[in-house]
């Protein structure tokens, strides 16, 4: 008994990868602005690449956006914490 083959014109629907747009904007505003802006750029690229049919590039842009957000949060947290420690140090002199 032969297995039926799928027709060559069958379309597969897939949800677009996450674009992390809200996280990118929040990381730009609250954490580290330069990396946040780059994250916003890649966040916009996720949808553009997906609409043009480039699933692989869309996934790369999504992963890059996530990495930039995480890096922005880490750098921003270190800067905020360092600034707070500096203010406390100067205030106690």
Secondary structure topology:
Blueprint: H1 21-31, H2 33-51, H3 55-91
Subcellular location: Membrane
Pfam family, one: CD225
Keywords: Membrane, Transmembrane, Transmembrane helix
Description:
With 93 residues, the chain is mainly alpha-helical. The protein has one domain. Helix content is 72%, strand content 0%. The chain contains 3 helices and no strands. The protein has helices spanning 21-31, 33-51, 55-91. α1 (21-31) runs parallel beside α3 and α2 (33-51) runs antiparallel to α3. The longest helix is centred in the last third of the chain and has 37 residues, at 55-91. The protein is rod-shaped.
Q: Quick recap of the structure?
A:
The protein has one domain.
Rough outline: rod-shaped
Computed Rg: 21 Å
Order of helices and strands: HHH
Largest sheet: none
Q: pLDDT below 50 for ≥5 consecutive residues: which ranges?
A: none
Mean pLDDT: 88
How many β-strand stretches? 0
Which percent bin holds the helix content? over 70%
Number of helices: 3
- End-to-end gap: 87 Å
Which percent range describes the beta-strand content?
under 5%
Number of domains: 1
Secondary-structure content class: mainly alpha
């Amino acid at each position: 008994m032969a297995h039926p083959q799928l027709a060559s014109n069958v379309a597969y629907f897939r949800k677009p990868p996450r674009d992390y747009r809200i996280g990118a904007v929040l990381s730009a505003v609250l954490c580290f602005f330069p990396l946040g802006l780059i994250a916003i750029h890649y966040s916009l690229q996720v949808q553009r690449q997906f609409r043009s049919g480039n699933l692989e590039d869309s996934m790369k842009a999504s992963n890059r956006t996530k990495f930039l957000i995480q890096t922005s949060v880490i750098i921003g947290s270190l800067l905020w914490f360092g600034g707070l420690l500096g203010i406390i140090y100067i205030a106690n002199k």
